[in-house]
Amino acid sequence: MFTKEIYIQLKDNVNIVQESKVFVRDLAVILTDKDIREDVLDIEVLEIPKDDRGHIIVSVLTIMEKIVQRYPNTKLFPIGEIEILMKIEKKEKKEKKIWLLCRLIIVCTVVFVGSALALMNFHADINMQESHKQIYKMITGIDENRPLILQIPYSLGIGFGMAVFFNHILPKRFSDEPSPMEVEMASYRKSMDGYILNHQKNTEEDQ
User: Where does the sequence pass through the membrane (predicted)?
Assistant: First the structure.
């Protein structure tokens, strides 16, 4: 009997809604003959239980077992990672726009005040005002207590420099490169996911 070959590569991370069914297409990329590919992708792997778990770890062996049950005469070739972390999103009611707006205002206010205090404390520690006075005197020879011709461009430059550094001005980007914050968040997420995968059991071991 002719044996078909199926290559399985797990995806990086998957977000699944609570109490929903999970299929092969949600967890992995499949390479096989066209006549069975869609059917393999539609194989149900598990159903997300209704509990407080925030994630589930699924082994590639679980997926292979489900595929073999439907197609016993196949050769399976797992590629890459052997486990995948599924993050469970709870079903929640849609929040009202006014509440979302209030939360946005609160977060923006906290971030703005915190950033302003950090900058002011930094400039107070290094006595930036005195530095500006000395620079102005060196250039013009005039002793000026408030050299606004230096302070105003400097203040504007801080804001513009931060926008360039984070590669963002409102919804606009300067380039397609990720910002330092996005890189740091991606690194943090990868470390967290790696820790969970290394220290928690997969679905087979839970049963």
Answer: 98-120, 148-170
